[in-house]
Known about the structure:
Blueprint: H1 16-26, E1 29-30, H2 31-38, H3 42-54, E2 58-63, E3 66-71, H4 100-114
Helix pairs in contact: 1-2, 2-3
Amino acid sequence: MTERDERGRYASDHTDADVLAAVRARDPAGTSEVADELGVSRQNADKRLRKLADADCVERKKIGAVAIWWLSDEEKSPSDVTPEDSFWTAEPGSSTNSTDAEQADENLADTLADE
């Protein structure tokens, strides 16, 4: 059974991190999906998600009668970053691939030459 906090209110069984993880699992997620993931009522999930939206942790869009939630840019973390990747240890200029800057310079030069 859920215990009460120091003010006599029922304490939540889930932290904000738990709610964010439920959104991250679906991203974007409907309110009912978050509720199912946490094992709480839709109303409880909606209340928690609105609180997180007020704190700029998630964003919301209403589509018909359904609210869709997704992580704000501040809450998103890179998922495909591997510290062991050789990218992180390569010396500047050692790549055989052209960089975005080099490609942009080439595109700009081509564009200017066409004018």
